[in-house]
């Protein structure tokens, strides 16, 4: 995977969920379709955005309040979060990548649950999450981040990642392991025009600040 400033926001579709909403909306017109969970619907409409699809169990908004031109998908299964059900819907609609807003912030148990859903579907859908501080994603085994010199970068194992090499950062790793209960890689700095992160096994969550 190669990430630079011109491609980081490029995804097939947008998804808004019910975490902390962004202070500034992304360019909605740059995406093929806009999805949201029921809890994010009111935020979007207040900001002049009509999603194409709203899904959820509709405990956050009355289905009768939704615009008749918006597709409504009722997903009542309480064994899954609204975020996971929306991811499943996007995957089944044939899309390969999604930019997510509202994944973090507010109730932190929701945030951890959202990370679980991201990890669960990372092999079938390219999921990048954005907030007012930056973006984050589950990395493939080889990632190249360009044009983010002097930005803060954190490597978080979920729960572990093996033989990590990081090049182009202030504190590089050389075939080292990270594990959530032992050692994590927070608050590093990208010091080169290109930063390379590779690993051989596990799940590695990368955070990059704006």
Topology overview:
Elements lengths: L1 E2 L9 E4 L16 E5 H9 L6 E4 L14 E4 L7 H11 L4 E5 L6 H14 L4 E5 L3 E5 L3 E5 L5 E16 L5 E7 L5 E5 L4 E5 L2 E9 L1
Low-confidence stretches: none
Mean pLDDT: 93
Q: Which percent range describes the beta-strand content? A: 35-45%
Structural class: alpha/beta
Shape: elongated
Helicity range:
10-25%
Instruction: Give the strand tally.
Output: 14
Number of helices: 3
What series of H and E elements makes up the topology?
EEEHEEHEHEEEEEEEE
* Radius of gyration, CA atoms, in whole angstroms: 18 Å
Tell me the major beta sheet: 14 strands, mixed
Distance between the termini: 19 Å
Commentary on this structure:
Helix 2 (82-92) packs parallel to helix 3 (108-121). Strands 1, 2, 3, 4, 5, 6, 7, 8, 9, 10, 11, 12, 13 and 14 form a 14-stranded mixed sheet that branches. With 210 residues, the chain is α/β, with parallel strands linked by helices. The protein has three helices and 14 strands.
Which features does this protein show?
elongated, 14-stranded mixed beta sheet, 210 residues, alpha/beta
